[in-house]
Amino acid sequence: MCQFEPDPENSDKTTNIVATCGGNSVCFIDVTTGKVVSKYIPKDVKEMLYSLCWATWPVPGGCRKEVARVNVLATAGVRNTIHLILPHQSTCFLTHQLTAKRSLRPIQALIFLPHDPYTMMVGDNNGVIRVYKIAVTGSPPFEDSCSMEVLYELSTESEIFSFAFCTTTRILLAGCNDGLMGFEISDDNHNPKLLKFTMPIKADVETALVDSVEMIGDGWVASKCALHPAIYIWHLPTALGCNCTVAPSHLLHWSDTDNYFMYLGLQKHCGLLCCGDDMGALWLYNIKNLDTSHKALKPTAVEPSAIFPWPILSDSSTEKKRKLNLDVYDIVVDKVTINYDGTCIVAVTNNNLVCIWRRKR
């Protein structure tokens, strides 16, 4: 997984730092230099980290009573443990194991609520969503001043792969093995009804798996169903009014692949959506000017604005040691993230490469 760090002073922007996780570590990379500026390795040698997400916390600024803002990264994986990290201080100030070691369930999705960065949703491979409230009583580095409490639990009844939260409807969407699920999240109701969305079907595809979902703004959603050669753009409030039936307004043409789990990357500020494929290519879409003002009988087909093919790589150290080149086997792009002005795209692959793409001036 990978995600750009938000600018703590301007939520519409990002910094030059991108966080990546895979294996037993999280790397913080400066995309202007390509160098790893800090790295977190859990003490548990059996940990394998699958997911991460950022939050910006307002914290007291001291005697001047100013409110400072600090970025925190959450990451988790196979050991059913949440790690909260201060990247610029290279410290993990809290580790929290969700269940006893004898019943470990890998954590596969994390999200902080946009309107409440101290509330985090944690989804595991058994379909359980735990809603956590994080309490902070001190200032960074938060030593012994941070704790986590489970407010309540939900179940999608299906393995969870991704989360998105709609601020318009307060619906939490979860891409799952059995399709797209949702819950209306509120402070008053800790037992919301499970919403099961009816997604578009493809005649020759038996699975209903939704591996990636993103909110693109104003109730509009981008979602990707496994083995479908398209990314669906649709309106969540409209679907809620039609018994949770999804009717896409646009179909973004994408790879006709038989591989799963290539996650969408979205940057709302510049209106770009991107997804990699199993040939190492990036499919980029300009969604800022999509016409969503009228209802059409059929969804509008949209071609990618650009497709960036996998580059030809030259690795002198590999050649000297007579090892196989990195791209001998298929390069699957697992996840993509875009900086705020669309000048830099970062992709992570199935063979642990971090690829930085910069727009030419």
What features would you describe in this structure?
The chain has 2 domains: 1-155, YVTN repeat-like/Quinoprotein amine dehydrogenase (Methylamine Dehydrogenase, Chain H, 7 Propeller), CATH 2.130.10; 164-360, YVTN repeat-like/Quinoprotein amine dehydrogenase (Methylamine Dehydrogenase, Chain H, 7 Propeller). The mean pLDDT is 91. Strand 21 and strand 22 form a beta hairpin. Helices cover 3% and strands 51% of the residues. The strands form 7 sheets. A 5-stranded mixed beta sheet has the order 17-18-19-20-24. A 4-stranded antiparallel beta sheet has the order 1-2-3-4, with no helix packed on it. Strands 5-6-7-8 form a 4-stranded antiparallel beta sheet, with no helix packed on it. The protein is mostly beta strands and 361 residues long. The radius of gyration is 20 Å and the shape is globular.
